[in-house]
Amino acid sequence: MLGKREPDIYGSLTLNQINTELVQQAISLELDLKFFQSNHEGAIVDKVHEIFDKNIDGIIINPGALTHTSIAIRDALAFMTCPIVEIHLSNIYKREAFRHTSMLADIVTGQISGFGHYGYQMALNAIAKLINES
């Protein structure tokens, strides 16, 4: 629902527009991107399990509201050995108190929050740097 739902909080770009920007950035960083989106917790867990043995170099994840509730996503990501960047379009720490807790914060490599769609570009740059350093 990006671009439609609360654009004053989440911005006016659609997910496809954000992904298009990331593809261009990935080309310049010589990275290959795969995208996955679901509003269903189990589908996200299944995708993480699916990529576990696929030699993934890094993960950028925006778990949305599941950030604050999903132990299942946390447990799935905890098995991953690649860098993981948790991203949020809005600053979750300037919002309602229940949004201040991330179930992923202690297992991800880093967290980017509050920079709108630019946060995805920041996350991709971070992943590229971490990959190149390893």
Query: Which oligomeric form is depicted?
Result: single chain
Please give the alpha-carbon distance between the first and last residues.
Answer: 36 Å
Given the structure, what is the number of helices? Answer: 5
- Beta content comes to 5-15%
| Structural class by secondary-structure content | mainly alpha
- Cross-sheet strand order for the largest sheet: 1-2-3
**Can you give the helix content as a percent range?**
40-55%
Radius of gyration: 14 Å
N to C succession of SSEs: HHHEHEEH
Mean pLDDT: 95
Question: Could you describe the largest sheet, including whether it forms a barrel?
Answer: 3 strands, parallel
Low-confidence stretches: none
Shape: globular
Strand segment tally: 3
Properties at a glance:
mainly alpha, 134 residues, three-stranded parallel β-sheet, globular, 5 helices
Structural summary, described in words:
- The protein is mainly alpha-helical and 134 residues long.
- The chain is globular and about 35 Å long.
- The chain contains five helices and three strands; from the N terminus they run H-H-H-E-H-E-E-H.
- It has a three-stranded parallel beta sheet, with helices on one face.
- Helix 2 runs parallel beside helix 5.
- The termini are far apart.
- Strand 1, helix 4 and strand 2 form a beta-alpha-beta unit.
State the gist of this model.
By secondary structure, this protein is mostly helical.
What layout of secondary structure does this protein have?
Elements: H1 7-10, H2 15-29, H3 41-51, E1 59-61, H4 71-78, E2 84-88, E3 110-113, H5 118-133
Parallel strand pairs: 1-2, 2-3
Helix pairs in contact: 2-5, 3-4
